[in-house]
Design goal:
binds zinc ion; 13 helices; 2 domains; 375 residues; 4-stranded mixed β-sheet; 3-stranded mixed β-sheet; CBS-domain
Length: 375
C-alpha cells in the first residue's frame, strides 16, 4: 500500500497509516464524542466527551497495531520476512513477503491475531473491575476498549478468507488435503458468501431505519472483493510458478547507451519500438533504466542536448535473472508499485519484463488452455 504515512519502526518493521485511516479516525472520534458517550454517560461535560472520544480512538489504533504485530512476530519467528504494517480503513495489513510454506505455520500466524485481541479485551475488562465508579470517564474508556477488542477478535475469527479465521480454515483444509489451491478456493468462497450475507443484512438494517447498516454493507462488500482478489492472486501465482522470465522476454530487446540523447531515445525506442521503458547499458553492463515518465519531465527543447544518463533512474533498480520464475518479477512489480523490472544476467544487460508482458502471457495461456493448473 503506497499512499501511507510512515510513523515508527518497531523491531525492523515500518509502521504506517493509510490516509483513509485519518478519515476513520476523525469519524470515529466524532461519533463517540457526540453520539455514543453523551447517551451512555450523561453526567460528563463536553470536554470530557471529546477527550475520551479521542483517547479511545487512539487506543483502538494501538490495539489494532498490537494485533498486527502479533501476526508479524510469529511470521518473523518462522523465518518469513515482514517489512511493514499499514493501518487502514478497516484495520491493518501486515506486509508479509511470502506465503507460509506449511499449513502449521499459516495456522499459528493467523490465530495469534484474534488471540491477542481477545487477551487485550480481557486486560481492559480486568482493569474495569478495579474502577469503583462505573460512570467515571476511566470506566467509559475501559468498557469501550474491552468491547471493541472483543468485537475485533470475534469478527476476525469468522471463517471467511482473507480474514484471520478464513486463514485458519484454509490452513486446516490445506493440512488435511495437502492441496493449497483447493483449500484457498473453499476458504475464499466462504469469505465471499459471508460478504454477501453482510451486505444483505446491512441493507435490511438500513431499510428498517438503522443507519449502521451502511457500515455492515460496506464491510461485507470489502470482504467479498478481497476474497475474490485473493483467490485470483493465488491462481495467478500458481500459473506463473515455474515459468522462466526468459520465456516471456524472448530474445530480449537491446538497451540504450547512456550517451545517446533523448531525441534518439524517443524516436528509436519509444516511437520506433513502441516501448515505454528501456535499460541503459554500457559495454553490456546495466547502469540504469529510463522510462517515458522520466522524459515527460524534460522540456522538449532540451531533448537534443540532454544525454540519457542525465535523466535515467540509477537506483533503486529492481532486477530479476532470466532464470527466475515470473512470480519473482511479479512480486517485485507489485511490492514496489513499478511497471517493469530489469532482467540481468549477473550484471549483464538482458532486457526488461513488465506488467503487461506478464498479463499477456497469462491471457494467452488461458485462451489457449495451456498450463491450466489447480482448481
Ligand atoms: Zn489479523
Amino acid at each position: 500500500m503506497k499512499s501511507s504515512l510512515k510513523l515508527v519502526r518497531i523491531a525492523g518493521i515500518d509502521i504506517g497509516i493509510h490516509y483513509s485511516w485519518l478519515i476513520i479516525f476523525a469519524f470515529l472520534s466524532v461519533t463517540l464524542s457526540v453520539g455514543v458517550f453523551p447517551q451512555l454517560y450523561p453526567e460528563w461535560d463536553t470536554t470530557t466527551y471529546w477527550m475520551v472520544g479521542v483517547l479511545v480512538t487512539l487506543l483502538l489504533f494501538v490495539s489494532v497495531l498490537l494485533h498486527e504485530l502479533a501476526h508479524s512476530f510469529v511470521a518473523k519467528a518462522r523465518g518469513i520476512p515482514v517489512h511493514s504494517i499499514t493501518l487502514f480503513i478497516l484495520g491493518g495489513v501486515s506486509n508479509i513477503e511470502e506465503e507460509p510454506e506449511e499449513a502449521k505455520v499459516e495456522f499459528s500466524m493467523a490465530i495469534v491475531g484474534p488471540l491477542s485481541s481477545l487477551v487485550l479485551a480481557g486486560i481492559f475488562w480486568g482493569l474495569l473491575q478495579l474502577v469503583e465508579d462505573p460512570q467515571s470517564p476511566l470506566a467509559g474508556v475501559l468498557t469501550y476498549l474491552a468491547l471493541i477488542n472483543f468485537v475485533l477478535a470475534i469478527f476476525n475469527l469468522l471463517p471467511g478468507y482473507p480474514l484471520d479465521g478464513g486463514r485458519v480454515l484454509r490452513s486446516i483444509l490445506w493440512g488435511r488435503t495437502g492441496n493449497l489451491i483447493r483449500a484457498t478456493n473453499i476458504a475464499a468462497t466462504v469469505g465471499q458468501a459471508m460478504g454477501w450475507g453482510l451486505i444483505a443484512f446491512g441493507l435490511v438494517q438500513l431499510f428498517v431505519g438503522n443507519l449502521g447498516g451502511i457500515w455492515l454493507a460496506f464491510i461485507g462488500w470489502f470482504l467479498s472483493t478481497s476474497a475474490e482478489a485473493s483467490r485470483r492472486e493465488l491462481t495467478m501465482r500458481e500459473q506463473l510458478k515455474g515459468v522462466r522470465v526468459s520465456e516471456v522476454i524472448g530474445a530480449g530487446p537491446e538497451g540504450i547507451s547512456p550517451d545517446a540523447n533523448i531525441a534518439e531515445l524517443v524516436t528509436r525506442v519509444f516511437r520506433g519500438e513502441h516501448r515505454r521503458a528501456v535499460p541503459v547499458c554500457k559495454d553490456n553492463y546495466v547502469l540504469g533504466i529510463v522510462t517515458v515518465t522520466d522524459v515527460k519531465e524534460l522540456p522538449r527543447d532540451q531533448w537534443e542536448r540532454t544525454p540519457v544518463r542525465d535523466i535515467m533512474t540509477r537506483e533503486p533498480l529492481y532486477s530479476v535473472s532470466p532464470r527466475d520464475d515470473l512470480n519473482a518479477a511479479m512480486s517485485l512489480i507489485t511490492r514496489h508499485d513499478v511497471n517493469q523490472v530489469l532482467v540481468m544476467d549477473d550484471t549483464k544487460c538482458a532486457g526488461l519484463v513488465n506488467r503487461a508482458d506478464i498479463l499477456n502471457y497469462l491471457q494467452l495461456s488461458q485462451e489457449l488452455g495451456l498450463r491450466q493448473k489447480g482448481s
